[in-house]
């Protein structure tokens, strides 16, 4: 089998099919192996993968398109991203402050809490004059 570039772009060196009954080069142009049947032999003259594939030629970078028409001051992409992020940030802040305001509105008033606390702490027994004076 002749040497060839496989489908991954790696060079597979030539090899001889002369081991026992496996004497024919078979398979496809991108994957070759030795086989024993002449009717399944690969016609290597029809294959075109003997040279480095074009997609592997990375010697020089592709030529640049003329950027003289590009004006970065007219590019509004960054401005649009900043506006969208700003709107989202404002909406998050409004949501947070709304939630805090609603929680505060639903929280019992402090004066009601202090009266309830005073009622709990007030002795349940008979009141004497000493207690009245302290209160």
Automatic annotation (TrEMBL):
InterPro entries: Shisa (IPR026910), Shisa_N (IPR053891). The chain crosses the membrane at residues 79-102. GO terms for cellular component: AMPA glutamate receptor complex; dendritic spine membrane; postsynaptic density; postsynaptic membrane. Keywords: Cell membrane, Cell projection, Glycoprotein, Membrane, Postsynaptic cell membrane, Signal, Synapse, Transmembrane, Transmembrane helix. One of its GO terms (biological process) is regulation of short-term neuronal synaptic plasticity. The keyword Signal applies. It is found in: Cell projection, Dendritic spine membrane. It comes from the Eukaryota. It is a single-pass type I membrane protein. Residues 1-49 form the Shisa N-terminal domain. Pfam families: Shisa_N (PF13908). PANTHER family: PROTEIN SHISA-9, PROTEIN SHISA-9-RELATED. Belongs to the shisa family. SHISA9 subfamily. Regulator of short-term neuronal synaptic plasticity in the dentate gyrus. Associates with AMPA receptors (ionotropic glutamate receptors) in synaptic spines and promotes AMPA receptor desensitization at excitatory synapses. This is SHSA9 protein. It comes from Herpetotheres cachinnans.
